[in-house]
Design goal:
By secondary structure, the protein is of the alpha/beta class. It is built from 20 helices and 24 strands.
Length: 603
């Protein structure tokens, strides 16, 4: 290695790798042996949580993210640098938070073994990094402040060039935000290498001597290794790399891939490649029962036109599979281009990437701009901060009308600190209403995960991971890992196990009634006719029932909320289409419904 520059790298396999391949749905006990193997291989810097790997543990894994961080620290050892990902004022949620929750986030992550927090804002609004960065440093953590990158769809201009990134970094420096290193984060892997080189070169000239510059990208567009080389040639010090099976495709390049790319060059990773390959064997064994989405393993040529980050791409396709509408994915990814063009050029990284996809989802399912997604609408109206360029005035007007909200220039923290539904007092009230302990951890879970966090703490969370069962009938590898029947409905496979008057479907238990007679759809129709139902209320889209707001016998008025569905991390209120009386509620909390399914009978 004489004369070579040793490149620092962070292993992202157990955070971004999980998010980018498995939709962040991985059980703690399944991957800890791989962390121990990576430690034995000499790896000392890990991404260990945060981002989607916080909420996902409560939403899908029925596990505690703080316990996961504790176990990660134990497996990685006391000297490892454990880094998490934070979204500025959103911290680890999709919604922005009040100042007391932002401060609590830093203190709790320090308490649970984290040493560094990478902190970004998807809009590159530096106002969203000032207080969050101060809290991170005040908690005794290292703060890696971010500038977020992507390539605009062809034909767009006005932001996301080297000049724009230089101005963003200048604002960070002028705001006196404390930091220990700077990251340029390209979550969609679309920033062209020449622009990466120019951006890093300008940053190196601006930053104090010795400042560590970190570049992050994904392989989704097929240019990650070239992008890393461009960044290093321009003066970057560190990059992000992963381990198979959570590498390449929608993830970061594999450590072995980069080791190979450096052969004969002036760069070196300073690793024992044989030991790393042994660690990969352990990791592959750990993950062998998890469903590997095919879209996670390949380069997607559409990404430069519709910049969907690797971490959001598979999370969204997993949800599309959950809802039985994966066939709509090509239309939705294509629809993203127009959504990005008209939304103000926020970087396609969480939460903005989710807003983009939710709006593309709505444009496909309901028609272009017929239904504004809540997050997207709030973004163009200014409730998450200032977008890099002004959003399309027509879209702003549509959002204002549909959401009943006016545009704002207040900062998110100002808005949230004045909101009685936000902050520690509101989180405590939710816990008290559910008779749950008022620990700091519970308060934070309540604030960032809302109803699903409360469900977890009450022991009512459901398991939503996708594992394959090698013992399934006829050689089928079916999701959930339960034995029983493998049932295919509209191209989606379900594991169904019958036990008396109970049915387990993909690991979730339902009460059932087995009788002779017509099919369920016919029985519903017959029941409707016999009871004189005038107005059936059907699901306009697939989703999960998260709240039922009515019961049999209730008198309701047109526009009253009957129940709430969730799909693609959006809550959709199902309202009464007319005045009437609730004759029957056909679903309950936790049920997965399909488009067109009867939800409520109104008389």
């Amino acid at each position: 290695m004489l004369g070579k520059k040793q490149v620092k790298f962070m292993c992202t396999a157990f955070r971004d790798g999980f998010q980018s391949v498995y939709g962040a749905r991985v059980l703690t006990e399944d991957f800890i042996p791989a962390v121990e193997a990576a430690r034995e291989a000499g790896i000392t810097w890990y991404e260990a949580g945060g981002g989607a790997r916080f909420q996902s543990l409560y939403f899908y894994c029925n596990q505690d993210a703080f316990e996961m961080m504790d176990k990660f620290r134990e497996a990685a050892g006391p000297d490892a640098d454990l880094q998490t990902l934070a979204r500025g004022v959103n911290v680890v949620g999709l919604d922005s938070q009040s100042s007391d929750i932002i401060d609590l986030h830093a203190k709790l992550f320090k308490k649970h073994g984290i040493s560094t927090i990478r902190n970004f804002d998807a809009l590159n609004d530096v106002n969203n990094l000032i207080y969050s960065g101060k809290c991170i440093v005040d908690a005794g953590l290292k703060h890696q402040v971010c500038v977020t990158l992507m390539e605009l769809p062809p034909g767009c201009e006005g932001a996301h060039d080297a000049e724009f990134y230089e101005k963003t970094l200048r604002k960070i420096l002028d705001a006196d935000i404390p930091f220990s290193s700077v990251c340029f984060k390209d979550a969609s892997g679309t920033a062209v290498p020449s622009k990466v080189h120019e951006t890093i070169k300008r940053a190196r000239r601006m930053l104090p001597a010795g400042t560590l510059i970190h570049f992050h990208t994904h392989e989704t567009a097929g240019i990650s290794v070239q992008g890393y080389m461009a960044a290093l040639d321009a003066g970057a010090d560190a990059i992000d790399l992963s381990l198979a099976p959570a590498s390449g495709g929608t993830c970061q390049p594999d450590i072995a891939t980069m080791w190979h790319a450096f052969r004969g060059s002036k760069y070196d990773l300073g690793i024992d490649i044989d030991k790393v390959m042994e660690a990969e064997k352990v990791f592959k064994e750990c993950m062998k029962d998890y469903f590997m989405p095919p879209e996670a393993t390949k380069v997607e040529p559409m990404i430069p036109w519709s910049p969907m980050p690797g971490g959001a791409l598979t999370a969204n396709t997993q949800m599309l599979r959950d809802n039985g509408i994966m066939d709509k994915y090509p239309e939705m990814i294509a629809a993203m281009s127009d959504v990005v063009k008209r939304g103000g050029f926020g970087t396609s990284v969480t939460p903005v990437s989710q807003f983009y996809f939710q709006q593309a989802f709505n444009n496909v399912m309901f028609g272009p701009w017929k239904k504004i997604a809540d997050g997207y609408g709030k973004m163009v109206l200014g409730y998450f901060g200032k977008t890099p360029v002004s959003p399309d005035p027509e879209i702003v007007e549509i959002a204002e009308e549909q959401l009943g909200m006016e545009p704002t220039i207040q900062t998110p923290i100002e808005i949230n600190d004045a909101d009685p539904k936000k902050g520690i007092p509101a989180a405590k009230k939710r816990l008290q209403d559910a008779s749950l302990p008022l620990t700091d951890e519970n308060i934070f879970i309540s604030a960032t995960c809302m109803d699903k966090g409360i469900d977890y703490l009450k022991g009512e969370a459901t398991l939503g991971i996708r594992k394959v069962d090698p013992t399934a009938p006829q050689g089928e590898k079916s999701a959930a890992g339960a034995d029983g029947y493998t049932v295919s409905v509209n191209g989606n496979k379900y594991v169904v196990k019958l036990d008396g008057d109970k049915a387990s479907v993909n690991g979730k238990t339902y009460e059932i009634e087995v009788t002779e007679g017509t099919a369920k759809g016919d029985k519903d129709t017959a029941a409707s006719k016999s009871s004189g139902v005038k107005t059936p209320v059907n699901a306009a889209m697939p989703g999960a029932v998260v709240r039922v707001e009515c019961k049999k016998g209730d008198a309701v008025s047109e526009g009253d909320v009957l129940l709430v569905l969730e799909a693609m991390k959006m809550e959709v209120e199902i309202k009464a289409p007319a005045d009437g009386k609730v004759e029957a509620v056909k679903v309950k909390k936790g049920d997965q419904v399909t488009a067109g399914q009867l939800l409520v009978d109104l008389g």
